[in-house]
Design a protein that fits this description.
There is one protein chain. Helix content is 19%, strand content 25%. It is built from 6 helices and 23 strands. It has helices spanning 2-12, 19-35, 38-45, 88-105, 179-190, 215-225, and strands at 65-66, 75-79, 110-113, 119-124, 142-144, 158-161, 165-167, 176-178, 193-194, 253-256, 260-263, 272-276, 281-287, 293-298, 301-306, 310-313, 343-346, 350-353, 362-366, 371-377, 383-388, 391-396, 400-403. The strands form 7 sheets. Strands 3-2-4-6-5 form a 5-stranded mixed sheet, covered by helices on one side. A 5-stranded antiparallel sheet has the order 15-14-13-10-16, with no helix packed on it. The protein is elongated. The protein binds zinc ion (2 copies).
């Protein structure tokens, strides 16, 4: 196995960047810092490379290049240790955000595992057993293995040079390396992306500081795995699959076949609470004794709608009969279930999860460009508790454009 692994590395990771470049960089860099010239320092750092995979062929018809793909879905990843230069929690958060960025834009699902994931992510120094030793500070920052079966357990693995100075905030000196950007680039290799010939893309070979996914990267990953699937039941999906709306629910949903009134009690004479647009999906919390009115949740409010105006997905035998006055919210959503005035707009199709982290189960998908009300946030403000058409859950803040002041939003942690 070891020999086979080494062979794979020799093939996949040609040492096309000479180690002597690194020594040269160091000298120029020192000079640049001594002269206080930011431009010269940038020029000196420019040849930093994420890894030593080959450059893309310059005249490729498409810019992105794909090399391999996972033949299963979902794929797991694990963060198996921590760097010396960063606190562990910050490092792991940056890694999760980097992996989640790919997950959000393609049809492959990436789930975090506690250890030994398909994509095992670790910090290593010097020679570390895979035949491709790291080179100390500067130069090569990381490497990752394509998802090809003959690599065995190494397939997909991602190694970061622990001799680098990794940071999760903007670099203040030229030798600091942005962890999230580097992991996102290497995770591209772990998913089967090769270097692109588009110098504005993340999969460009040179490390130039903080970057995110560019259109070329997204086109490439979608060429491998397709677009994010509407499978998980966002409103765009007209499939009759039941949508699990939120923790407290019965698993049954109703889709309004026309514009509907939500009322305070079952019956057309009861007070109107809200107007519900046609095609809205509504988690069903209960029904009346006759079974012709449904007790649902919409935009955070609970009330009754006429069952005969809805298509019902799931078994009504799972739905309890509730009093006409309704029921208290089954899952009191923490300090403040009321919209705060702060909103978040999804920058891609994003997952709503049951807790603030990628390790929590997915509840539904929030389609790209959807604006949701922010009800709360976690203490780190990197996860937002939002209301999406009455379904409440957590979304990654870094995949949203937030309007308003998150400091005014209540903090909760689950
Ligand atoms: Zn690379
Ligand atoms: Zn390695």
């Amino acid at each position: 196995m070891h020999n086979q692994s080494k062979y794979a590395l020799d093939c996949l990771l040609r040492p096309s960047v000479t180690k002597s470049i690194k020594g040269g960089i160091t000298g120029v860099l020192l000079l640049a810092v001594m002269l206080g010239s930011a431009a010269l320092a940038r020029a000196a750092v420019r040849p930093m490379r994420y890894d030593d995979l080959n450059s893309a062929p310059p005249d490729s018809a498409e810019n992105y290049v794909t090399a391999a793909k996972w033949d299963k879905n979902p794929v797991t990843y694990s963060i198996d240790n921590c760097p010396r230069s960063l606190d562990c929690a910050s490092a792991k958060q940056a890694v999760r955000e980097a992996v989640e960025a790919w997950d959000a834009v393609c049809g492959l699902t990436l789930n975090e595992f506690t250890g030994g994931g398909d994509i095992a992510i670790s910090w290593e120094r010097g020679s570390h057993g895979d035949g491709n030793p790291f080179d100390g500070p500067g130069g090569i920052l990381a490497h990752a293995f394509f998802p090809v079966s003959w690599l065995g357990d190494l397939a997909g693995d991602l190694h970061l040079d622990d001799d680098e100075t990794w940071v999760v905030t903007p670099a203040t000196v030229p030798w600091q390396v942005d962890l999230k950007t580097t992991v996102m680039h290497e995770a591209g290799h772990s998913l089967g992306m090769d270097h692109t010939s588009d110098p504005t893309a993340l999969m460009w070979e040179e490390y130039t500081g903080i970057r995110g996914l560019a259109p070329d990267d997204i086109a490439g990953i979608q060429a491998l795995y397709g677009p994010p699937t509407p499978d998980e039941g966002g409103p765009a999906a007209a499939t009759p699959a039941p949508v699990p709306p939120s923790g407290q629910s019965t698993g049954v949903t109703a889709t309004a076949t026309t514009a509907l009134r939500m009322r305070s009690a079952p019956g057309t004479s009861a007070q109107q609470i809200a107007s519900i647009p046609s095609q809205t999906q509504l988690p069903v919390l209960g029904q009346n004794a006759a079974g012709n009115w449904l007790y649902v949740i919409y935009n955070g409010a609970q009330g009754w709608v006429a069952g005969w105006y809805c298509n019902i997905y799931g078994s009504m035998s799972n739905v309890p009969v509730v009093p006409d006055s309704g029921i208290a919210p089954a899952n009191p959503p923490g300090p403040n279930p009321v919209p705060t005035g702060v909103t978040a707009q999804a920058t891609s199709n994003i997952r709503m999860r049951s807790g603030p982290g990628t390790e929590f189960a997915q509840i539904t998908t929030v389609p790209v460009n959807t604006v949701v009300n922010v009800l709360a946030r976690n203490s780190a403000a990197n996860w937002l508790y939002v209301d999406f058409n009455g379904t409440k859950g957590w979304v990654a803040a870094w995949l949203c454009t937030v309007s308003g002041d998150l400091n005014t939003v209540p903090v909760r942690d689950s």
